[in-house]
Amino acid sequence: MKRQPRRISVQIKLNALVISGILLVALGLMGISYYTFCRRVDERYEAALKKAADACANNVDADELRYFWNAVNTEEFRSVHDRAEAEKNEQLIEDWLKGKPGWYYDNPEVTDANRKENGEPLSPEEFAAIWSLWADYEQIQYSLQGIVDYLEADTAYYQYADGLTTYNIADTEEGLLYIGTVEAPIPEFSAYPGNVAIPPIVYHSDFGWLMTAMVPVINRETKEVVGAAGVDIDMTEVVAERSSFLRQSLLLVVILLLVAIVVGMIVLRKTVVHPLKKLSSAATGFAAENRAVTKEDVINLDIRNNDEIGDLYREIRSMEGRIVDYTENLTRVTAEKERVNTELRTAAQIQEAMLPNSFPAFPDRTDFDLYASMTPAKEVGGDFYDFFLIDQRHLALVIADVSDKGIPAALFMMASKILINYRSQLGGSPSEILSAVNAEICTGNKSKMFVTVWLGILDLETGLMTCSNAGHEYPVIRGSDGVFRILKDKHGLVVGARAKSVYRDYEIQMNPGDAVFVYTDGIPEASNAKEEFYGLQRLEDALNRLPCQDPCGILEGIKADVDAFTGDASQFDDMTMLCLVYKGQEAPADGQ
Fold first, then answer.
1. In 59-72, which ranges are continuous DSSP H helix?
2. Are residues 534 and 525 in contact, defined by beta-carbon separation less than 8 angstroms?
3. CA-CA distance, 331 to 119, in Å (whole number)?
4. Nearest to 311 by CA among 279, 346, 337, 341
5. What letter does residue 272 receive in the DSSP assignment?
6. Which of 494, 473, 508, 503 has its CA nearest to residue 580?
7. Strand order in the sheet with 368-375
8. Sign of CA dihedral 534, 540, 541, 544
9. Which of the chain's termini has less CB crowding within 10 Å, N or C?
10. Please, are residues 579 and 555 in contact by the beta-carbon 8 Å criterion?
């Protein structure tokens, strides 16, 4: 028999044709217009930046810049600068500048400023008080600020060039401590030789994402390069213009898509919906009354369409025939399924009640904080956690994973939890507790089930946690440096596998602020659609990436990170987590 080609729905064809056509045209136009707009915005900012840099270079006298640098390039100024920087007191530099003669004072060509209101010349002392280095600095800053305000730049500055070393002189966004500091080299400028004009360049620095242009300050008579004038523009302003245009373009695309959808619906209504009304009217009569349906109730219409409507008519006839045949079986299966669901819901409620789920668990305790959660893969799971005070000084933490799922695993989990809790109350180290529980479980374990267990007992006064691991996942510890690290402890055999298993203790010294994070294999073995595992490395990275440091926030952050990784993939295993942050004993008040 010749294989029939796969048929594609008319509705899919129409929707795909209209929506994809509009979308392709709109996206193409949007891409072209966005690219053109971005180029124009970049060119406009680059031209403005170059204009501002030229203005800065032309607005300062090279001799004045050299004079100012020679004045501050002294041991005396460096001593004052170091003291001002150590004391965070810029007034020391300002007082020093006010006490030194400025460029106008030493420049005999400048005569207009050396006059009183009545035209008489100023005395040297009066003139020095007016035209000090402080006056020179204010004039340089004033000229820079004027250019920044007029040309809408963000920052402008002057630098002095001494060979291959550049020293900062003035900056509109820096204070007096900026004077005389060495300008750190910028890698993006390395392609240009020293003391030349640098066109607008975009780069990342300690001051942000910037576009910078540099123009040399040249002595007009000797043609000697004295320094450089630089201007910065924050690239976030450029990106903001681009983003605004992109948002408007996307809005246009959305509008076009909505129009396309409306048009498509109108076309579908005329070509598909109206013919279906006849079929719908006949189909609604099937089993309309509360009675048992028969073969006579199956629809029988004169529909011979060789398209989706014809396929739908024939499928409805077939479906109604199957409904008649399977009504009795369906009723019986539904009743059985409801009984099973009721049992599963009851088991889930019992399991949830077995786990401590009221937080904060110990509201009167300030020496630790903890949080735990369990997300079963089925209605009931095989994971469990527990925490309880053995006495007022010792806190027990338990996390475990039963080898199966469903109701059998839930029953085994409850028995294991009760045994571990009961045996812990009798005292002993974690290894002794696990040995006793293992011996008890192995007695009459006909189901051959087992459970992995990590048990830790924390001394709340000293911060010493004694732990033992029965085939469970590695714990993750956050130390005094604030970094989570996986602790690859030695594992004993799982509980329930062999009656005479030997378990060993190990110790973790916790200091205030330290944390322990334990989990079941449902976390590292969570997989995405590509069948990739979440893994321990992603877990460790996610823990160190979380901004929240409290146990509840840590668990919520890891759950969100795992969900983002797995995406639409179904949950294969139970996911259980427990996190404790040790805070230590409060220091006693004075006099107590």
1. 62-72
2. yes
3. 115
4. 279
5. I
6. 508
7. 368-375, 575-582, 515-519, 476-478, 484-486
8. positive
9. N
10. yes
Give the single-character DSSP code of 287: T
Strand partners, 459: 394
Taking CB atoms within 8 Å and a gap of at least 24, the contacts of 95-101 are: 97/132, 97/133, 97/134, 97/137, 97/176, 98/129, 98/132, 98/133, 98/134, 99/132, 100/71, 100/132, 100/133, 101/128, 101/131, 101/132, 101/133
- Of 156-170, 365-379, 464-478, give the range with the top mean pLDDT: 464-478
Question: Cα Rg for the chain, rounded, in angstroms?
Answer: 40
The predicted model gives 62-89 an average pLDDT of 90
Structure tokens at 276: 């279906």
Q: Per the confidence metrics, is the pTM higher than 0.70?
A: no
Which residue's structure tokens are 């089930």?
449
CB 495 within 8 A of CB 470: yes
Q: Looking at mean pLDDT, say which of 78-82, 185-189, 244-248, 316-320 comes out highest.
A: 78-82
C-alpha closest to that of 434 among 460, 473, 472: 472
The DSSP secondary structure of 398-463, one letter per residue, reads EEEEESS-HHHHHHHHHHHHHHHHHHHHT---HHHHHHHHHHHHHTT-TT---EEEEEEEEETTT-
3-state secondary structure at position 527 = strand
The values of phi and psi at residue 537, to 5°, are: -65, -45
Nearby residues of 35 by Cβ (< 8 Å), 6 or more positions away: none
Amino acid at 30: M
What is the enclosing helix (H) or strand (E) of 169? strand 165-171
User: Parallel, antiparallel, or unpaired for β 208-218 and 225-234?
Assistant: antiparallel
- What token pair was written down for 583? 């805070």
Q: Look at the block and give the residue holding tokens 């199956």.
A: 298
